[in-house]
Amino acid sequence: AALDVKNMFFMIPLCEQGKAQFAFTWRGTQYNFNRFLQGYRYSPTIAHNVLAKVLAEILIPPDVTLYRYIDDILIGGNDQESVKSTMKTIQEALTELGLEVPEAKCQGLAQEIRFLGVWWIKGAASVPPDTLDKTEHGQNPSSVKELQEILGTLGYWCKHIPGFSIIAHPLYNLLRKGKSWEWTEQRTNYYKLLIKETRLFQQLGPIHLTDP
Fold it and tell me: What are the Reverse transcriptase domain coordinates in residue numbering (predicted)?
């Protein structure tokens, strides 16, 4: 199961001493934030730690594991009732603190779930189907920008794909500064091979073998 806390940054109240650091003036009038805000250098870290402290106070069954990142929470386990009750407990605890957990963004009990852009199947990380479909059905890149976008997408999974750096090397060469754009048949073959290998290793297996 997965939960998403709405506007996590803005749910963190600022202490009186800290409000002055976020004050700003607009047309001669000074404004102060009462809540934490996005865009600050350490905003993600602070928001992540605040939620971590809140979750640490909640009693979690030993057969359930929590994963969290800023405002996203993944609840994993082999027992459905344990996961279900933990999800409900967390929702109630967060709501009592004034945090909003929209039902529309919650993912209930399932063998397959989307979390942080990764498709999880029974605890194993997999490349999302829409990521592969978009790449497979698209045309060959016609510019440096398009190639950067494609390699950025596929490159996210590079550590799971054997020989990724070797296959993608001719493509990355086109991104070198001062390199003229020349899309050859050989690069097309490497590009197709890269997509084929990503599809082959779509289900990447669990990161930690002992995790649920």
Answer: 1-120
Using DSSP's 3-state secondary structure scheme, residue 179 falls into coil
Task: State the fold for domain 2-116.
Answer: Alpha-Beta Plaits (3.30.70)
Name residues whose C-beta falls within 8 Å of residue 205's C-beta, 6 or more positions apart in sequence: 124, 125
Q: What is the residue type of 135?
A: T
Write out pLDDT tens, residues 17-28.
878 888 888 988
3-state secondary structure of 23: coil
pLDDT at 209 over 50: no
Q: Give the angle subtended at the CA of 69 by the CAs of 92 and 5, to the nearest 5°.
A: 35
Angle in degrees, 0-180, between the axes of helices 144-155 and 129-136, rounded to the nearest 10: 150
- The domain segmentation of the chain, as residue ranges, is 2-116, 129-205
- The residue-averaged pLDDT of 55-84 equals 89
